Amino acid sequence: MPVRFSFYVPVLFGMLWAVALPAAGRAAAPPVSFNSPVAYPLHNSGTWFTLADFNNDGIPDIASAGSYLTVLFGDGHGAFYADTAPTPNVATCGQVASGDFNGDGNIDLVLGCDYPAIFILLGNGHGVFTPDGTYGFGGDEARPLFVAVADVNHDGKLDIVAATEGPTENVGMHIFLGNGDGTFQPQQRYPTGGLPWGVAIGDFNGDGNLDLAVANGTAVAILPGNGDGSFGAPAFYAANKDPVYVATGDFNRDGRLDLAVANAASNTVSILLGNADGTFQPQVAYGVGTDPGCLAVGDFNGDSKLDVAVGFAGSGTYAVLPGNGDGTFQPAVIFHTASETPFIAAADFNGDGKLDLGVILKTPNTFSPQLNIGGADWFAQPANFHLSGDASAVAAGDFNGDGKPDVAVAVSSANAVNILLNDGSGGLETMQEYPVAAGPNSVVVGDFNGDGAPDVAVAAGGADEISVLLGSGNGSFQAAENFDAGAEVRSIAAGDFNNDGKLDLVVADSGSETVALLLGEGDGGFHSAQTFPAGSRPFALAAGDFNGDGNLDLAVFSGSSRENPIYILLGDGKGGFAAPTYVTELSGDALVAADVNHDGKLDLIVSQGVTLLGNGDGTFQAALANSCYSQSGMAVGDVNGDGIPDLVPTGSVAGVCVGNGDGTFQYPQYDFVAGIDPLSVVLADFNGDGKLDIVAGNAGSSDVTLLTNTTP
After folding, report:
1. Most Cβ neighbours (<10 Å): which of 135, 185, 326, 454?
2. Is the pTM for the entire model greater than 0.85?
3. What is the pLDDT of residues 682-710, one digit of tens each?
4. Beta strands of 16-92 (E only): which ranges?
């Protein structure tokens, strides 16, 4: 079922330009949709980044410049990681571009900073850059507004195109011709008739030479290239009010380059179609959103027609104008983000053949990949429900006895549990808050006092305790009772570990290299914790009968390195465990126990794309790559109704990985949009239609997202 979007069509009263609408009878463009699973800190004040493969692994990476240079490496699955610490720049840098300036096969950088020069940094092919030269603009008061890279003189060596502001004698386009060894010739300046805010490079007149298109704040200036690195006098074309960015593409498929221009003060994008002689037709404006400041061109909906993506300096959104292939565009599709999006660029971050978007989020200063989910979605438009703070874990249970699942959320920043009751129609009611011990990081639901009403228990790492909230059966809970549980309590599970018919609790004690078992008394109370060795710094656990003897066992993820050991602690059915048995070492932050290959034996799924198939005797087969990656919580369930367990990851990658029935999963289908930084997820049928829905707990936006399953 396609995702439903509200189209933004502005009504402009008293304006002198037209807002273009789709022609009557024209078929709607295929839908385009993106998810926004995570944002990555940039450790600077940068509002710009460049996309390139900085470590030669064939996967797009980003480099952002501000007060620090931050490099984030793509993992090929839509997530990013930092292998190098941010390095301070010589000045605050607002612009960055990339290319191989010295012909060594490694990508280098050029920075435009608060300084009358550009800075060259040579790359070593591993994402590390070394300063290698400074080239001035010919005036101490000149400052860069834009930098770009191209071979403008046909010598096979990359040159640098920089736009500057400053005194009149310094304003314009500065061309630095490359020598091919990482050095550059002194600049040559070309006036642009105004402040050159944005630049696009292309052959607009078909003579084989690269030309420049410049958004100068009042118009678009076209500087024809001579092919030797020099440029002719500019010709000017009207846009709307305050044109600040320009991008190019063949929007009407006539073989000639056209222009898209972001007009900051009129909240529009102008399209100027190119003629065969390098001139342009009068602009047509499309309403988009507040203060458009950046553009990216690409086919985002897979219809082989170029679309235009828009970043906004004045609103927490970005937009896509779907192209019709004839030079016209359909109304803008608006996507909401956590803050302003002053820079946007396009690349395929996860290798699925769909063009994704990367945006800078202004507050806080982060990079956020927006993964293209192709327009067709299994889930209806997400609904977000406010919490009292950041969600660290979610669980589901019928807390008011109406036969419909409700949600319990551990809210670490508020030292509370939030309860959101099902509203009876598949939504959630306003949350109720219950104080618990400090730092709740994991939550589990069970009937701990045997009254038939679900209760809630949380691991409270800030207090080294477990907090238990006993449910009344009508949706309310008694005040929390706290139980000592060890040191640096993380991850909690419930089960009957001594076979007495009463639920017990077990937690990972990261600070004492043990797991702590609290045997239930059956009335909501628990005996003092018993501890069992579980390796150095255990941080995640899962309970299940891994050897088929009818007793609950534990799988424990321990350690603090990039790769950490997994241990199995076999239960004796009397509340004790055997010494931990080493299984393997893997990277990851979470693990889940489930039978994902239908052999009746519990398996382990590890968050970094690995399945450990169980042998049924407490041992496991060699690690099996399963193609589904997560950086925090996961949930297993049959989401698409084919009888095979699917995997729902969260963190940097949020979506549904369709199970193949053999322990592997199809490549992640990014088909839902959650809030910011979803760290946990739970599956339940919230609207009673027999399909599993998703609730994601969002650590960065203080809410939970409910996604209703609309799979046919």
Report:
1. 454
2. no
3. 999 999 999 998 898 888 778 888 888 87
4. 34-35, 40-41, 49-52, 61-65, 68-74, 80-81, 87-88
